[in-house]
Amino acid sequence: MDEPGLQYPGEALRSWLRQFAKTPVAEPTLRLLVVLADTVFFASLGREEGEATRVRIAYHAQGLPGLQAVRETVFIGGVRGHRKAWETLPLEPKSSITDFSVEALVKLAPAAHLPRTAVVVGPRDGKLRIQGLARRVEYTEFHAEGEEDVFILHAPEPGHLVVSTQGREVFRYEQGAPVPPGRRVALHDLLFHEDSMVRSALMEHCATLVESLPKVQPLMGGNREWYVSNAVHGLIRKMAALHHGGLIAFLPKQHDLDRFRTRGKYSLPSEQGSLLRERLQRFVQARAELINGAWRAESGKSASEAEPPEDRELKKAAAEHDDKATESDFQALVESIGQLTAVDNALVLGPELEVVCAGYQIAIPRSGPPQVFEARTLHGRPGPHYPISQHGSRHRAAAVFANQHSGAIVFVASQDGPVRCLHRPPGKKKVLLWSLLLTED
Fold first, then answer.
1. Where is the Probable sensor domain (predicted)?
2. CA distance 160 to 234
3. Are the C-beta atoms of 419 and 412 separated by less than 8 Å?
4. Digitized pLDDT (tens) for each residue of the chain, 441 residues in all
5. What are the Cα distances from residue 253, in Å, to 77, 99, 408?
6. CA 183, 187, 193, 198: dihedral to nearest 10 degrees?
7. Facing residues of 346 across strands?
8. What distance in Å separates the CA atoms of residue 287 and residue 137, rounded to the nearest whole number?
9. Who's near 315: CB < 8 A, 6+ residues apart?
């Protein structure tokens, strides 16, 4: 690691945070992060029963109790409340198990190889100790109280290191050096931010679906567009979580879907392809009835006209049950459809979130993929030429598809790298590319 340009990950992290951190990090915390980073990095080079270890730890200055004190803001039945942000499992403080070392992490890492799950590390008796396991509930759009004191250090592949806080990646280390952030944007911003070109294109693809959804009070349940973006967000997150690599293409309205069905290795009948849309509609309808429920109108009636309190409570309980059941059904379907990205070639979705086929092969012309340009902003201002050919066939296929189908939105994930989005706006000649940051799994 003494060659010019190469650094130990801990020292690279220290330099990086000193230069780029939005909020200065105290020197004692920096020293601890250096130790944590190097330990996670070297643990990622180990193997347990022949398998490479994918290590993930959660560090809090107060250890497990500090993690348990972090609170997430949620809306339950239209009422703002708080819940624990982490589900925790303490470990007994036995030195053979809880000493923080490369060997201990290699042994314990498989227990945390689940989405949003980590080995909890914190100080105890003047030393860093492994204090338990913890699983983060799904991130919401609200800042969690105390989340700024939690650092997630993750080795997605041997020799790689990713550091996140508050659900956002702040540092990435590969091949002996930090990876420049360039102009990577958060997947959440790309799909939810009003200035995003990709979000605007997605809403055009799904205009009829959006109009079919009932209105929900935005401060309590998200607007109608939010639910469509959330469905796509779930598909992309599932593709990335598989660590297999995949490609999802969303077609705009002016395409013959039957042509894609006949060429896909696994095609869905049109009545089955609409299942994602239908479950989303049922879920949003249930959410709207819960939040904008009939029992709320009773407060405006006279006492003689109002329903008995027990009837209102029964209605509310039924609405809460329907909300949970329809959301669970919808999320399960998103997971299942996202799993189809593990099939080679592309998963294709048509307008209004219609699932068309999986295993769709994209032919790359002899001339190679088109020129691709890095998008400098969410709005899609073209930047420098992006060398798409440095990647494998999946990325080249994504560029070809985006170029051939104006207005399409293509997400591509390699097995060991970040997710990217490609899009050629209608009427434009340039294929744009966004390199994306995902919240920590």
1. 27-134
2. 25
3. yes
4. 444 457 889 999 998 888 877 678 888 888 889 999 999 999 989 876 667 778 899 999 899 999 999 998 776 655 677 888 999 999 887 766 678 899 989 888 888 877 789 999 998 888 899 999 999 887 665 677 888 889 999 887 788 888 888 877 788 887 788 876 556 788 989 999 999 999 999 999 999 999 999 887 654 556 899 999 999 999 999 998 887 899 999 999 877 888 899 899 998 777 788 999 999 999 999 988 887 764 455 445 444 456 677 777 888 888 888 989 999 999 999 999 999 999 999 999 999 999 999 999 999 999 999 999 999 899 999 999 999 988 889 999 999 999 999 999 999 998 766 799 999 999 999 999 998 887 654
5. 36, 57, 9
6. 80
7. 360
8. 20
9. 293, 294, 295, 307
109, 247, 231, 265: CA torsion to nearest 10: -110
Scan for tokens 């097995």, then name that residue.
415
* Token pair listed for 239: 């593709």
Strand-strand pairing, 51-52 and 47-48: antiparallel
pTM for the whole structure: 0.71
